[in-house]
Each structure stands twice: as structure tokens, then as C-alpha cells.
Amino acid sequence: MQRGAIVAVLMEVVLDQSFASQQIINRWNYLGSGTPAAVSMSFALTSALGAIFDEVAIPPGYPPTGLMARIAAIQATGVTFNSLTVKDVYSDLDFYSTLFVPNLFGLNADGNSMSPVVAYGFYTNRIRADVRRATKRLVGVTEGKVDSLGVLAGAFTAAISDVAAAMSETLEYVDGGNTLTFIPCVVKKESYPTSIAPDGGQRQAYRYRSEATQFDFIAEGVVWDFYPNVRSQTSRQYGKGR
Fold it and tell me: Would you list the domain boundaries of the chain?
């Protein structure tokens, strides 16, 4: 998509985690712009999200202000970060996939871990009438972070707010003097009439098949917030795992 003199690309981020023997998948979209010099847009976004281990930092580790580290801070110690895959949705060449090596685990050890069905919930504002708000469910809730009736403990909301703020940030990566920019966005989905779900209904895709059409249905610059109580994700019941 042409945005003034800058060509924008739609990026998709897929985080693969595991918890209680269940595979946990979460996706985000960003609108990337800028001219890469030495790296791909996908690598630049991966780095900006804090998924590249920094060996020269003191101490070495994943960047503490990155989205990955902020997510790890609220998740139970049993949550394992497996991989992060970032790609330009409409390119066959621009993608980057990295394993979390050394390992990255959840850091929340406050009480027993709840079932993977129980999750922290996030949602975006809605800035276009024709594009629905996005939601996100992150597993790894511990009993120590939840009060009666599933309400998040008041002292814990600052850490949850940090995750929402990180998901709302416009990210940057400087590549050879060029600044690459990534704006969080929500894309409208298309139901493919030829793709039939197991229940006989139409399967909903994560994007439009036509790039030109997709860019007519993107809400960019959304802001994430969190629900004050825990949510549920029935697709993550034991034996289902996503």
C-alpha cells in the first residue's frame, strides 16, 4: 500500500507457546513502513518485539522492555515460549522465524497455576465501524494474582497495563540509518466460501486474499486495554491445545 512516499506492508506476528501440554497460539498484526538496508522487515519487527536474545547486555537476556519480556512477567512459570514467526503477509520471501534459545519462560510464581482455559484478556479500541476490535487471551494465570470472582488483584494491574501498553506501542528499528516503523493494527477478516469448517460452516481466514482489498480494511494505530477479570478460552481445554 502506498502511504504518501512510503510503501507500507502488512506484517503478521505468530507467538507459539506451550502450557500444561497444550499448544498456545497468539497473533498480532502491524503495518510496517520504511526502507530496509541490511535486514528484512520481518527480522526488524522480531527484534523490536524483544524476541532476539541480547548476549552483550548486562546481564544477557531478552530486552526487558520488549513485548515478549512483558508477557513473560505476567505468565506462570509453567509457560514456555517456543517460537516467534514474523512475516510480510503478502510476500513469499520476507519472513523470519526464531526459537527462544536460550529458553524464555513465564516468571509469575505467585501461587498455583490455573487451567489453560483461564486467561488474561485484552481488547483494542474500535476506530473504524467496518473493522471489529481485536481481542487477545494470554494463558498462565496464577491463583495469587486473582481475587474473589475472578477479579484481577489490584496490585497486579500495573503489570497487566505494561503488557497492554507494549501491544499499543509503535515500534521502531534503525537499519543502517533508516528507521523502520511498525504500527499496531487490526485487519478485517474474510470468510472463504470454499473453505468449509468441520461443522459445515464457512471457515474465517486471517486476511483477505487480495492485498489491494485488504488495505481497504485495516484499522491502524489501535490501543490495547485489559479486562479487569480473567477470561476463558475453551479452545485451550485439555486435549485441544490452541
Answer: 2-236
